[in-house]
Design brief:
single chain, alpha+beta, nine-stranded antiparallel sheet, seven-stranded antiparallel sheet, 26 helices, 42 strands, 23% helix, globular
């Protein structure tokens, strides 16, 4: 019956057309009145009799009926169901060994509006052996309440009285008593058509694989996606699935294996409930071959498969899978990694548009005891969390926390419900993770000792994290990590899928009982159980004077065979001493560099000490950091362990949209970093922790930005340097500034461009000819080596592309037989910085005194030696030429850069605009030197040096939460408006001023359209704005209006037009990367279209605008839009109170009325871009 319901096809007749209309395909019907398909499952878990009799022989009936049968036609054609007869004693709950199934899977059609008109009716009957059965009582509950609440519920059955008795109780205001309490599990879910869009997929093969070198590195790659269609599909076997092959890409030496969109005639679709979708997986097959034409098939070219579970597809959109090949050799088993985004669009069954339902769709929250959606043929990892003790206090106002659980395994994430205001939560929550193997053959005995072990190791450890829930952010309350090796070595115990078997007291001996037929999830099995009671929670971000504990257990159901045992992981604590020694050498090298730098340039930023001591305590520092603390275990880790590769949907790959998204995470500095201006040793957090907390300092924003750029296969680095900020402690001198540490991101683009990404201000700075490829430098080095034996100088070929490098004299590499440096023009300020020999003459006698030839020779020799020492620290004259000089960077120094592989310290000039960024050998200055201006933490040869140091990434993959639903956003918007109105009313009330608010519907619609345009403006690249192509004197009113919205005022827009990126953009140059093909034209068109929309918004007569904004006669309407990088109401209220524009509006005595409008834009990761518009009407003067 279920199959016929899904596969019934339309034949084009009138009846079929009417059926489609009834099933919601007719868009002329309102969304609340359209018929939807529903799936109903119900079972009885327990029964408890609370009536007046001591014992009763009873049964129950279940039916779905309209509340008013006379006025509503019944659309649900389900026959009444009867429970088994049983004997119940008063106040003696009877828990069934096997839940009694009432409806296993029943389908019916009903609109959202009719859910309130239908009820689930439960009737209780007393069995009489000698006469008719007696009607004892009834209970009912609306289907909307069932479809919106937890599936596990307690159902009360009220006593049934005569009409006279009911009237007497009503007069006395007495409540009808309960006669029974049923424990039911009711799953009522809508059947959807889910559209799965696969975007921004990338493939990265393991280059240490034996088959990579000289074979796969020169082959093209392709992917095959196998996606299930319904609940009856099996992707591992390819049964009832959709599949498609993407075009061939590569090889990696010529083209990166990135597929922005999986091209398909029709998108992937899955029909079923959300629970059914989350119980499936997709398979991605990887092909590699020598392809001579794009249409060549991919048969027999498969090198591995990757399986990705859809358990969290509705919560996260980014997926990562390990590509594996069925091999017994560990080196051949892991092939690579494939990452991408799966964007889910939810349609009701047979609907072609997404319905916007006011108040949201009815949806049941996940329950711990719900196992009806699990497949009995699959193995499951069960993690049972009972409770936590002594959690930290995250909310000082209530002296408690709002804890909830996050459990991750095998790239699957599951959450528990939130328990409010407690530090000792009792969860009793079960997490069920399906155990799926990329190849069913792994279960064979021949693979247990090798390939199966490799498969389990690739799934990673079990992580249970406790978080404090907040509307805008979260705080970590601790975590525990369980390796599978410990689980598989635990002691055996008896368990069911739901946990320990329940003990039921024996019934009376004289009562015959039929043997219970248990469901598959209630079968007792002998499994290995890891006992995690009283396990300490580590990694709490809040102060706690007690030891936080968690009580949990984990096991596989059913268990693996006894021979399946994994090796224990090696302890990483042994590396702490290695990194401490490495850090000491690194700091010593930095101190020597600073000493040499300070000789010719004692007052420069590059001469600042790199370590605090008794003489410069509290002063400015220029530190070369290389080590930080693990955010959870607090062990020493190099900075390379913090970035990871993150793949996002394609709309978040564009530079403007990416910077806007990262900046919408709340900025928050610790008190120590705020006070000292230095990043603490434990101040670096991995992107996964930052995505969970949704707030952090600038270094966390930069790490997330760099990780996303690395995930899109860009050459990205995290940069740490210093900037000048106002010194708040020097109140008497407002112009005094102090030097603080700052972090941003750098990418090396094609054509020698270097781009700085600033996460705080959403700006990008482009520097031309700041690096060159290693192959080009190697060509120059070979010429140098060929001429070195002859001596003299060598000039690079004019045909060679001269991008980047520190070669003097326009790309010429000059070699002298001695250590002399080529002559260079020095200015007076450079000479003043050089040391002097002998006593300094008096200023008045300096011009008259004759210089001794001997002293002159000494000075020349000393100056020559100092130049030889400080050559790498002087400005590169090549970069100071017209067309290359950059003076608009906001950074004062750049100290270190790092990515996932290494950390480099700047051993050149301290300013980021005066140096090059060639990190790989051969180096610019001299290939025989240890470094070319950048000293690497892991030296050359890299692979040999890397083997001596071991580190593991803090997080291999990052799980990104999906954007919040529209219903939740609407509630937040209403709460934000109410809060800001109350804030404005209180501010004016202190001054004795009245405050009136208006909420006309038309005005709110117009303001929403305006704020949508403002949000769009923040996602565009400002370098391609048409206003900046013209001088500020040529701007018209439209340009000034646009610049005022973008920069806060037209004057700031004029400064930006003159100051930033005068040399062009790396994303719009002729030699840009393929990923930016057409980027310039696209951005210019978007800016032009946006400006036209703003002009249309501003056009119209004053009378027309007065009607739209409901302006009273003799008044004018003024207002301002404000953007916030947080949705925390308390923080927004504090920010508004510091704004001069807001203070002027609150203190305006002539204001007649106000309007406050809020628009929240939900973004990936559970953050919002918050816009407020505050307007007022004042009399015309």
């Amino acid at each position: 019956r279920l199959t016929r319901f899904f596969s019934k096809k339309d034949k084009g007749g009138k009846a079929d057309k009417g059926r489609r209309n009834r099933m919601g395909a007719d868009e002329s019907v309102s969304p609340e009145d359209r018929l939807r398909a529903w799936d109903l499952q119900m079972c009885i878990r327990s029964l408890n009799y609370v009536g007046s009799e001591a014992k009763i022989d009873t049964f129950f009936t279940f039916s779905i009926l309209p509340i008013e049968p006379r006025h509503v036609r019944s659309r649900v054609r389900l026959l009444p169901e009867y429970s088994p007869a049983c004997i119940l004693r008063k106040n003696d709950p009877k828990v069934l060994d096997t839940p009694a199934i009432v409806w296993r899977s029943k389908l019916f059609k009903m609109s959202y509006k009719d859910l309130d008109k239908y009820i689930l009716k439960v009737s209780m009957w007393k069995i009489s052996k000698m006469s008719f059965n007696t009607y004892i009582g009834r209970g009912d509950r609306s289907l909307k309440r069932i479809a919106s609440n937890d599936a596990d519920t307690n159902f009360a059955v009220k006593e049934k009285l005569t009409k006279e008795a009911e009237e007497r109780k009503k007069k006395k205001r007495m409540v009808l008593g309960d006669v029974a309490m049923l424990g039911l599990t009711i799953n009522c879910e809508e059947i959807f058509d889910f559209q799965l869009n696969c975007e921004n997929w990338s493939l990265e093969l393991d280059r240490s694989h034996p088959l990579w070198k000289n074979k796969r590195e020169f082959e093209k790659k392709a992917l095959t996606f196998i996606v299930p269609k319904s609940k009856f599909s099996d992707a591992s076997k390819g049964h009832n699935c959709s599949s498609t092959v993407v075009k061939w890409m590569g090889p990696e030496t010529e083209q990166k294996c990135v597929w922005a969109q999986v091209e398909r005639a029709e998108p992937f679709r899955f029909r079923g409930t959300s629970t059914a979708l989350q119980s499936h997986c997709i398979i991605v097959r990887v092909h590699s071959a020598k392809i001579y034409h794009a249409s060549q098939p991919a048969m027999n070219k498969t090198i591995g498969n990757a399986m990705m579970n859809l358990t969290s597809v509705l919560d996260i959109s980014v997926f990562s899978g390990t590509v594996k090949d069925l091999q017994k050799d560990r080196n051949l088993f892991l092939v690579g990694k494939v990452t991408g985004s799966i964007k889910v669009i939810t349609y009701s069954m047979n609907c072609k548009t997404v319905d916007h339902i006011k108040g949201g769709r009815p949806q049941q929250p996940k329950s711990a005891a719900t196992v009806g959606h699990l497949r009995r043929t699959e193995q499951h990892l069960v993690v049972r969390v009972q409770k936590c003790d002594n959690l930290a206090v995250a909310d000082p106002d209530t002296a408690s926390s709002d804890p909830y659980l996050r459990c991750t395994w095998d790239n699957m994430l599951q959450r528990s419900y939130v328990l409010n205001e407690t530090v000792r939560p009792v969860f009793n929550f079960n997490f069920y993770f399906p155990v799926r193997l990329f190849n069913p053959k792994l279960k064979k005995k021949m693979y247990r000792g090798d390939a199966l072990m490799f498969e389990l190791e690739s799934k990673g450890d079990i992580s249970v994290q406790v978080w404090d829930a907040d509307e805008a952010s979260s705080d970590s309350l601790g975590f525990v990590r369980l390796p599978l090796s410990k689980l598989l070595k635990s002691k055996p115990a008896t368990r069911t899928l739901r946990g320990p078997p329940k003990r039921v007291e024996d019934e009376d001996e004289d009562v015959e009982q039929a043997p219970a037929s248990r469901e598959w999830f209630e079968v007792e099995r002998e499994v290995r159980v890891f006992d995690g009671n009283k396990t300490e929670l580590t990694g709490c971000s809040m102060p706690n004077d007690k030891t936080a504990l968690i009580y949990f257990e984990a096991y596989f159901y059913p268990d693996w065979p006894d021979g399946v045992v994994m090796q224990d992981e090696e302890e990483t604590g042994e590396n702490n001493g290695v990194w401490e020694e490495k850090e000491a050498k690194w700091i010593e090298s930095g101190m020597q560099f600073v000493k040499k730098y300070a000789d010719p340039f004692p007052d420069a930023i590059g001469a600042l000490p790199c370590k605090a001591d008794g003489f410069n305590r509290g002063g400015s520092l220029r530190r070369f950091t290389c080590i930080s603390k693990h955010p959870q275990t607090m062990e020493d880790l190099p900075l390379m362990a913090f970035p990871c590769k993150i793949t996002t949907p394609k709309e978040y790959v564009k530079p403007g949209a990416l910077l806007h998204w990262v900046s919408c995470f709340s900025f928050y500095n610790s008190s120590r970093q705020e006070r000292t201006g230095l990043i603490p040793v434990d101040g670096w957090k991995d992107p996964q922790t930052f995505l969970f907390t949704k707030k952090g300092p600038v270094q966390d924003h930069a790490l997330l930005l760099c990780s996303v750029l690395l995930g899109s296969k860009q050459d990205a680095y995290v940069c740490k340097g210093t900037i000048q900020v106002p010194d708040e402690e020097a109140a008497e001198d407002e112009t005094k500034k102090k030097l603080v540490e700052h972090v941003w991101v750098m990418t090396r683009e094609a054509g020698g461009w270097v781009t700085f990404w600033e996460p705080c201000t959403r700006e990008m700075y482009h520097l031309p000819e700041r690096w060159s490829k290693a192959s080009k430098r190697m060509k120059d080095v070979r010429k140098m080596q060929a001429k070195r034996a002859e001596g003299g100088e060598i000039v690079a070929d004019e045909d060679d592309e001269n991008v980047g490098g520190d070669e003097a004299d326009g790309g010429q590499i000059q070699l002298a037989p001695t250590n002399e440096i080529a002559d260079e023009l020095l200015e007076m300020k450079d000479l003043e910085g050089l040391p002097t020999v002998g006593r300094m003459p008096k200023p008045k006698e300096r011009a008259k005194r004759k210089i001794n030839p001997r002293d002159k020779a000494k000075a020349d020799w000393l100056r020559q030696q100092n130049r030889a020492i400080c050559e790498p620290r002087m400005k590169n004259p090549n970069l100071c030429q017209e067309g290359l000089i950059v003076e608009w960077l906001p950074y004062d120094s750049i100290d270190i850069v790092f990515n996932m592989h290494n950390v480099w310290a700047n051993r050149q000039n301290h300013h980021p605009a005066c140096i090059t960024y060639n990190f790989e050998p051969p180096y610019d200055f001299d290939p025989d030197k240890q470094h070319g201006g950048w000293e690497a933490l892991i030296g050359e040869p890299y692979l040999q040096e890397r083997a001596n140091y071991d580190w593991a990434p803090v997080s291999n993959e990052a799980v990104i939460d999906a954007a919040y639903a529209t219903e939740w956003i609407e509630k937040r918007e209403a709460g934000m408006v109410s809060e800001m109105e109350e804030n404005l009313r209180a501010s004016r009330g202190k001054l004795g001023l009245d405050t009136y608010f208006e909420r006309p519907q038309k005005t709110q619609e117009v303001l929403t359209q305006f704020l949508v345009l403002c949000e769009k403006m923040w996602t565009l690249d400002i370098d391609f704005c048409p206003c900046l192509k013209r001088s500020p004197e040529e701007w018209d009113d439209s340009d000034k209006f646009l610049m005022k919205l973008r920069f806060g005022s037209s004057e700031k827009g004029k400064q930006s037009a003159v100051r930033y990126n005068k040399l062009g953009s790396a994303f719009g140059s002729d030699d840009s990367d393929d990923r930016y093909a057409g980027y310039r034209k696209e951005q210019e068109n978007e800016w032009r279209l946006l400006q036209d929309k703003f002009d249309a918004y501003r056009e119209g007569s004053n009378s027309k605008r007065s009607v739209v904004f409901n302006v009273a006669k003799g008044h004018k309407f003024t207002g301002m839009p404000v953007h916030f990088c947080t949705s925390d109401r308390e923080e927004i209220r504090c920010y508004l109170l510091d704004m001069e524009e807001y203070k002027n509006m609150a203190q305006d005595k002539l204001a007649a009325s106000f309007i406050v409008h809020c628009k929240l834009f939900p973004l990936l990761g559970g953050v919002q871009s918050t816009w407020l518009y505050i307007g007022m009407q004042t009399p015309t003067q």
